[in-house]
Amino acid sequence: MIDVLVAGGGPAGLATAIRCVQAGLSVTVAEPRTGPIDKACGEGLMPAAVTRLAALGVHPAGRPLRGIRYMDGSHRSDALFRHGPGLGVRRTTLHAALAARAAELEIAVLPRRVTGFTRRGGGVTAAGVEARYLVAADGLHSAIRRAAGLDPPPARHTRFGLRRHYRVAPWTDLVEVYWSRDAEAYVTPVAEDQVGVAVLGGGRGDYSSRLAAFPALRERLAGAAPASDIRGAGPLRQDVRRRTAGNVLLVGDASGYLDALTGEGIGAALAQAAVLADCVAAGRPDAYDRAWRRASRRSWLLTSGLLWARHQPLLAPRIVPAAQRLPRLFAIIVNLVGEA
Ligand SMILES: Cc1cc2nc3c(=O)[nH]c(=O)nc-3n(C[C@H](O)[C@H](O)[C@H](O)COP(=O)(O)OP(=O)(O)OC[C@H]3O[C@@H](n4cnc5c(N)ncnc54)[C@H](O)[C@@H]3O)c2cc1C
Known about the structure:
By secondary structure, the protein is α+β, with helices and mostly antiparallel strands. It contains ten helices and 19 strands.
């Protein structure tokens, strides 16, 4: 019997596997898709995420990011990172770097999907593997979370995200966030000739009609050829009863997700992976739920605060003007998110 079976080989799953091996545990990953794996994502790594990846021995190539810019039709505010740069990095590049590090540590990755598990002899069996612990890192719509009875009653959440890349030289080294009445568009430089554009929001409409709500951005992209297919994800918000059911533990998006509005999902997943490995290595899976909440608290609070303001009809149009009028406060908030 191995120590840990990780279901899902995205950033959360591979980071958990690497951390567990670094803590002296035996680990196998089950991931049905062949790499390098792509996903709908804004692809902006906050400074804390870059630091956490480096601690795993993972150094993906990308474009250094100096901060965040908020823009609407007539306002604009820049907030710079104070504790080192973030990184704009294609998901395929990030996945390849994590997978290479996992291979270096001789972590087996089985091409299998895990949809359920059985408990036997103090362990868990899933996808034909017997392990002391099963870690669900299978993303927003986690099948294992459902099988473990950790899904709350269904609720209606409507925000989702779509992204596409464009072949154009980045015009800035900030992540630009364009705000419209109902949606936000994120532009992240990811290579010297490529930017990613993610659109977040609710309601109906395909990618092009959503982009039409951002005339300044459309002008920037005029003539730029698409460099990837459109990918989507959602609903973004996923509530979870708790992060553990005995020796089944949830990490990353599978462990609960609010929104991509503040762009720190990967950083949060890396922080959760670290505390999960510590709890399992110490034989204290029961301590993980509380450790998860401590590790995720700051980003959860900041994202839910901004999301709340976003949904207030009187407040939402004032977010970018307020960031312009109060640049120091905006910089403090951006840095709290960047280091969360
Ligand atoms: C539009 C959008 C923009 C975003 N922008 C940013 C951003 O700029 N910065 C940032 O940090 N975060 C961003 N995020 C969030 C970020 O993408 C996620 O937080 C991150 O991908 C979580 O990683 P994960 O490993 O938990 O899940 P995933 O990346 O979804 O990986 C899950 C893995 O599990 C595998 N899997 C699924 N089902 C099974 C199964 N049954 N058995 C085994 N394996 C399975 C999948 O194939 C996949 O490889 C954004 C998200 C969206 C939707």
